[in-house]
Amino acid sequence: MPLADTGSLEGITYEELQLAARNHGMPLEGLRYDLTPLGMHYLLIHFDIPPADDTTWTVDIEGRVRKPMSLSMRDIRSRPAVTQAVTMECAGNGRARLHPRPLSQPWLSEAVGTAAWTGTPLRPLLDEAGMEDDAVELIFEGADHGTQDGVEQDYERSLSIADAVRDEVLLAYEIDGRPLPPQHGAPVRLLVPGWYGMTSVKWLRRITAVAEPFDGYQMWAYRLRDRVEDEGVAVTRMLPRALMIPPGFPEFFERTRTLDAGPTTLEGRAWSGAGPVTRVEVSADGGVVWDDARLEPAVGPYAWRRWTFGWMAEPGEHELVVRATDGAGNVQPLDGPWNHHGLANNMAQRVPITVR
Length: 356
Description:
By secondary structure, the chain is mostly beta strands. The protein has helices at residues 14-22, 73-78, 122-129, 161-164, 217-221, and strands spanning 58-63, 69-72, 82-89, 112-121, 137-148, 151-160, 170-175, 178-179, 189-191, 204-210, 223-224, 233-234, 241-244, 249-250, 257-259, 262-271, 277-283, 291-292, 294-298, 305-313, 316-326, 349-355.
């Protein structure tokens, strides 16, 4: 087992426990569902869940536009609606598997979920507002307010105009056919399929077109860097990842697995934001010998694919490993490179198991 997987949870802090109590990952058993049951879908809340009154809520479009707009929820819901299945993953997924462990929400591998999101496309709203020729980015401002690293802020992220006007980008107000619950951004949030979840700003209040790239705190925080003072590289689209439902049954505290010998079907899901998943490989010996899993059709163009693999489980100790490859040629690595914020760590999942 690689160093990045060993001892990384030693000395877990009180602050990390506070975050882990507020946020939650998806139990890996949730991989059996095409659409993640809402209560299983991963959840990350940066600050507090703000109060939201659907009857008075507005989303303002302003800045470098010719026709500023203030949209009520009635306005937003009256526009053409689109429903699409989208897999969403936190950029910090896998952070707790790095060593030394970056201190933040201590995700292992479960910060993911797939839902059917309903909303209205953003592009027609921008067309109606009329972008000025010098507009280069849009800032999306949420209603959640707090302090991070000493910076008081509303949660804000930006997208280039080209990224924001893609057809799949929505102002989403429903999930799985029901209104967004408070913790998922009610009454309306941005939805940016293919990108890590920090981009899909919740509790959306304002969209501002600007003539200069936005350098707010949350743009700085989501960059791959070895040292806090480095410029780093922006985190954008999800890297390829495959996860399996751990087979057999667990020990309560340590979650170690036991399985009876004989034929068994391993299964899970795989996804990527940089192109469709084209291959999933499984190893039963820690990553020495690999075999191809069977891929089923994706749930949607922006959602995960189910994979299955028939394994003849022989008595003894085994380490199951799974990895994905996407259409852009990106292969999930066996070990994740360390970075200061613990972001985009898509190292392959490893499941030690005792076969009896």
